[in-house]
Design brief:
The chain is an alpha+beta fold. It has 2 domains: about 160 residues, no CATH class; about 70 residues. The protein is built from 11 helices and 5 strands.
Amino acid sequence: MATQQPSSAPRTPALSRPYPMANPGYGKRSVPDQTPSRADDFAFLPARERCVAGFVDHLPDGAAMDVKSLAKQLPLYGQQAVGSALKALSVAGYLRRVRCLVGEGEQVRWVFRTFWSRTARDNEWWGSHLAAGDREAVPAVAAPSPPSRVPLEEPPATPAVPQQRAPEPAPASPDAPSPAYLALALLGRTDPRLALSAADCAVLEARAAEWLARGVTAEYLTQALTAGLPGQIGSPVGFVRRRLADKIPPSVSPAVAPPASGGPVHRMMMECTKCGVPGRPEALPDGLCRSCHRPDRPESTAAPVGGLAESDVRARAGHVRELLRSR
């Protein structure tokens, strides 16, 4: 990143009201071994990135780090501008978005965290840091106290109660929509720019079902399809079809076997700062996937079928001009 001279920029806004905190286990996580905070920590960043970085740096651990929550506290910038600033800060080495698998046995869940470093780090540092797992201590279940040697009176035996038969669950209606169809149908409620018709949902249902078959949830599917949207979308069904094909997550085993010791399971996977697609650190340089690492551009840049290349257009225009001069 080119060195820029420090310039005046909007000051980091003070928190006028309590900042929203993420659910326990989610949100901002500060990396260890950081230098003390200084007034010129982000002096060489552009104005927008400096403002967002200073604001995020003063947030407590566990604060919500989604674009919508940050934009509400930064009146100078909208959600799209804040998303672009977070992408730039990821490229500069200040943050990485990560998902962690925590829990024990079958009680495991994915939690989403944004690791923040006041000091810019390179890809090798982030890769080593995340490879180590950065496991936080999970409260262990207290071991039962040894039985007292004082003889205790045994409680009276309770009469055996016949086991009650649990009611059988009602059979699912054959006309009920699939989870993939529902996720597509609700995209328009998350962002009106991706409102799909019933026919559109039926056409894309098989592609969305392939995502869910790879172990992701409907919530993750919605987040991946609605992250980093352009200002205008001419064809919502074409836009969603392309994202379903380009950003499909890798196949991972949905079942994670716990370690032999029976301790808590910890797994970590980086995700793209802009679109949320998961991957290993080496596959996401600067915290971005291959498509998001390219310069921002419209989703559809393909030339129309049968169209001419720019060089051919110029050549033909020059030929026409020569014919007009000869007359």
